[in-house]
Amino acid sequence: MSPAGAPARRWPAGWFGAVMWTLGGLLLAFIVLPIVRLAATSPVASLRQAATTAAIRDATLLSLQAAAITAAIATVFGVPLAWLLARGTFRGRGLIQAVVDLPLVVPHTVAGIALLFLLGHTGWVGGPAGHLGISFYGTQLGIIAAMLFVSVPFAVNSARVAFEAIDPRLEQAARSLGATPWHTFRRVTLPLGLRGVLTGAVLVYARSISEFGAVVIIAYYPATAPVQIYNLFLQSGLTQSAAAAVVLLIVTLSTFLVFRTLASGRLLTRINRAYG
Asked: Using an 8 Å Cβ cutoff, are 181 and 132 in contact?
């Protein structure tokens, strides 16, 4: 039902609507058909066998865990930067925004090599960290670092757009009533922009769990789910890897839809009630 005073939405009619539906439908088909074809190649027995294989199960759990940690880190560090970009008028703002977007255009294998130079055993960060017993190469820390590099723009940009949509006068009103910058951010800015922040976290999670290029360079083992599927493809061919791919697809789509639903509805409502 349309909100009061808002015009009812109707399907576009005429030749224009037909053209728009045709073009949009072709794109949707391009997305859906490969997934449907992949699912159709794997019988239930193959899926059950793949799901109970220890290597596939461990790789999937590793991907889920690392992606969740990556989403949390990207949100904690990305939200402050997003707020600065949304509210700041400082010199160099455009350059910082370009740096944030840089991982979107860097080939992921290149990103993995660059991270290896930084976080490897002789890297600027990896070398000193090694003396403290911290290793990124071939560890879950390296996997998280690779996932974070390629996915963090989604957290920053999503939160930035949400903060930019907030009327600055609301924050100014809170400040005029004696609220500190932190209190204003916590009680006004963050609740109003929370949907964008949560959406960014979900997108980071989704992007991280599917990452292959950067991860395989810095941490080939322990194998994440995409790396394990690639190994199966090289060792056993298309049939065996297809079953594992469908299992990963089911798990990732399920978790993504759950997080997406929470971010857009129930979780957001509960958090807003807590703020109230």
From this structure: no
Report which of 256, 252, 249 is spatially closest to residue 39, judged by C-alpha positions: 249
The letter for the amino acid at 222 is: P
Residues 10-37: tens digit of each pLDDT: 666 678 888 888 999 999 999 889 888 8
Helix (H) or strand (E) holding 21: helix 14-40
Contact in structure between 241 and 191 (CB atoms under 8 Å): no
Give CA angle at 105 (104, 108), nearest 5°.
Answer: 80
- Cα distances from 51 to residues 45, 55, 80, 245, 251, in angstroms, run 10, 9, 40, 10, 10
Which whole-number Å values give the CA distances from 66 to 56, 61, 141, 174, 206, in the listed order?
A: 15, 8, 9, 38, 11
How many beta carbons lie within 10 A of that of residue 191, not counting itself?
A: 18
Nearby residues of 51 by Cβ (< 8 Å), 6 or more positions away? 57, 247
Measured over the CA atoms of residue 179, residue 183, residue 189 and residue 195, the dihedral's sign is negative
Measured in whole angstroms, the distance separating CA 96 from the mean position of its chain's CA atoms is 20
- Give the sign of the dihedral formed by CA 72, CA 73, CA 77, CA 83: negative
How far does Cα 42 stand from its chain's mean position? 28
Is it the case that residue 272 has pLDDT exceeding 70? no
Question: Which amino acid does the sequence have at 240?
Answer: Q
271, pLDDT greater than 60: no
Answer yes or no: are the C-beta atoms of 175 and 181 closer than 8 Å. Answer: yes
Residue 221 token pair: 């083992």
Find where tokens 């793949």 sit. 50
Rg (CA), the chain: 22
Burial class (CB in 10 A: 0-12, 13-18, 19+), 54: exposed
**Tokens at residue 3, please?**
């909100």
Q: Where are the alpha helices (DSSP H) in 41-139?
A: 44-52, 54-87, 93-105, 108-119, 126-131
